[in-house]
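Extended Data, panel c. Modelled sequence:
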Amino acid sequence: MGILDQYEDVRENRPKSSHHIKGIVCDVKNCVHHDGDNYCTADRIAVGPSFATSCADTVCASFKARTL
């Protein structure tokens, strides 16, 4: 089991919605949750792992690549 497996439910492929998470800015345009205006439309986000000691150590476990 990988470190981020516990976040699998957050990474589901969901239909795009019109809401965005207030205060969250995202530059990852190839994520299914990116709304085109640098906002995240996921229901929630998960950032980890818990042992991170710097920004470079963290990942957005909510990321799901957009398929073409």
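Strands lie at 47-48, 59-60. This feature is highlighted in the accompanying rendering.
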